[in-house]
Design goal:
single chain, about 325 residues, alpha/beta, D-Maltodextrin-Binding Protein, domain 2, 2 domains
């Protein structure tokens, strides 16, 4: 029996189908980090990415795009095809506080970003110049109140800006604010005596505090952290104060759902490894994951919560 004309026309399409549905990923995966090398976001990404690469069967390349409060990195993500080969580490600054703090923000985290998997969370750490006669959050507040406008507060990201401003608002004092490109610069200036205090990443600042280069005063969560139980919570001095930082792997809008689910499954597998959990604890990070269905709600709630705090502080977008 000879094949029909329709069968002959369909044959090339059938032969081409497998090539059109190439398995994902088919080349290296790039994860954009919107902060410089050495920041907590960068360290976290470099710790889990080798295991993620093994789980996905492709190399994972870290692409640091610091500056402009994360906008440079977000632009790079949105300029790439939303096929899962370019991803982004989303944090509180880029994923929650930026819409309320950056005027004419060129993206909307709830519209333009796709949450793939929550990775970790941590408190911030309030630190000060170790040469100051200050050994607690209460003493720092008293020191700043006695010197109106003379205390200096440095911040390297919008979320740290909010955290420090909320502390000053609740405590009733004013400080001169100094913005930095990244948090390590603010922490280093604090250690050098060029800043009175800053609110830093727990892992980064805890090492310097234990070495005596800065003085740790309080964690910013409502309770003490299991990773540094000797350090009081800021809520012990300012009841009701409670802020933490979180980290989430994400992609650009339009990312196919099967790719999201594949990455999420690999990420959950990686973050369950006890060895990685121990490495993250050294950096002041606790693993936290959520099922995929809860991620979008989590982000929306965080955007709303940070907006409420920023409105309370009467902070205007700049």
């Amino acid at each position: 029996m000879h094949p029909s004309r329709r069968q002959l026309l369909a044959a090339p399409l059938l032969l081409a189908a497998p090539a059109a549905q190439a398995a994902w990923p088919d080349r290296p995966i790039r994860i954009i980090v919107t902060f410089p090398a050495g920041t907590q976001t960068d360290i976290l990404t470099r710790l889990y990415s080798p295991a993620l690469a093994q789980a996905l069967g492709q190399p994972v390349i870290i692409d640091n795009r610091g500056g402009a409060q994360g906008v440079i990195g977000i632009r790079a993500l949105l300029a790439a095809p939303p096929d899962g080969h370019t991803l982004l580490m989303i944090g509180v600054s880029t994923g929650a506080s930026a819409p309320h703090m950056i005027k004419d923000l060129p993206y909307d985290p709830l519209r333009d970003l796709v949450p793939i998997g929550l990775v970790a969370e941590a408190p911030y750490l309030l630190i000060c110049d170790p040469r100051l006669p200050v050994h607690s959050a209460a003493e720092l507040i008293a020191y700043a109140k006695a010197r109106p406008g003379q205390a200096t507060f440095g911040h390297g990201a919008p979320s740290r800006h909010v955290a420090g401003s909320l502390m000053a608002k609740m405590a009733g004092f004013e400080a001169l604010e100094v913005a930095y490109r990244g948090q390590p610069e603010a922490t280093n200036d604090c250690a050098a005596g060029r800043l009175t205090y800053t609110i830093a990443d727990l892992g980064e600042a805890l090492v310097q505090a234990r070495d005596g280069r800065v003085r740790a005063l309080a964690v910013t969560t409502g309770q003490r952290s299991a990773l540094a139980p000797e350090i009081p919570s800021l809520a012990e001095t300012l009841p009701g104060y409670n802020l933490s930082v979180w980290f989430m792997l994400g992609g650009a809008a339009g990312l196919p759902q099967p790719v999201v689910e594949r990455i999420n499954a690999a990420l959950m597998q990686v973050m369950a490894e006890p060895g990685l959990r121990q490495q993250l604890a050294v950096q002041g990070l606790e693993v936290r994951t959520l099922p995929p269905a809860a991620l979008r709600t989590f982000m929306a709630d965080e955007v709303a919560n940070w907006g409420r705090i920023i409105r309370l502080l009467d902070m205007k977008p700049v």
